[in-house]
Amino acid sequence: MSVETSGSPAEFIATRRLGPCTVTVIREGDIRWEPDVRRGDGSPVPLDLWRGVVPSADERGGASIPCNCVLIRVDDVLAVVDPCFGEATEDGPWPEYGLQRTAGREAAFRLLGIAPEHVTHVLLSHLHGDHIDGCTIVRNGERAPRYPRARYVLQRQEWEPARGSDDPLGLASRHLLAVEAHGQLDLIDGDVEIGSGLWVRHRPGESRGHAIVEVTAGAHAFFHLTDLFHFACEVEHQDWAPRGVDIVTARRSRGLVCKSVEAAHALCTFGHAGPPCFGHIERAGNGYAWRWETMPGDSQPR
Ligand SMILES: [Zn+2]
Q: What's the pLDDT tens digit per position in 224-236?
């Protein structure tokens, strides 16, 4: 799939309706990533094995991965999960990651008829820069929340280390201090219902305060798995994770979530899912496997 700033909506937006709930995945852009994937015992996953299950991986194991912002509407709740990227700044880290933007979130909002004032919640899965750089905007020389009426929701144990010094790209403090100063930051502990069956659930591993989002709407269920999985193959290989992830904790979270997803027959997406962006987690032998769900008009999975 080509990624150009002039791309048609079908190239960067994917929508599914589940009863009263509408989910839209907005592909904000792609970054190049060499994840250095490890197994649970710390040993590297052999490159040929890795390239066998991630066909887009190059000879060093690196791959271009999409970064998605997800919009969830259910009843009066309009939630943005992980606003991804903001306006380019001179000191931004993204050239180093080879970021290629699509028309992005702002264009998607215009197409969907959504204004920033309509957003009721910004749900932050964790504080890695590619998930939070769109949280704020500079207005009249002052950095302010991009969504002026939204509550920004984050696990307390994700923010507290970053508020100290654990903020390698400096983006957590840049954005979250501004949100906090405007009184729009809600720190939560554990699983919290935002409203109308929309839950934020603490599922650590990627980071201490990493969270996923779950919606139960009538007979339907949807899970945004955020960075619990980075690649579809990790659903099958649950002890694989990029270096830096607490794999023991991540495995526990993955096991718990796969059980819930399977029981609910839920539709899922994850933070770096490429087209068609949605899929299901199904039993496969003693474990699980990811199955992409393609709809007419979707791009084919890579
Ligand atoms: Zn991520």
A: 999 999 999 999 9
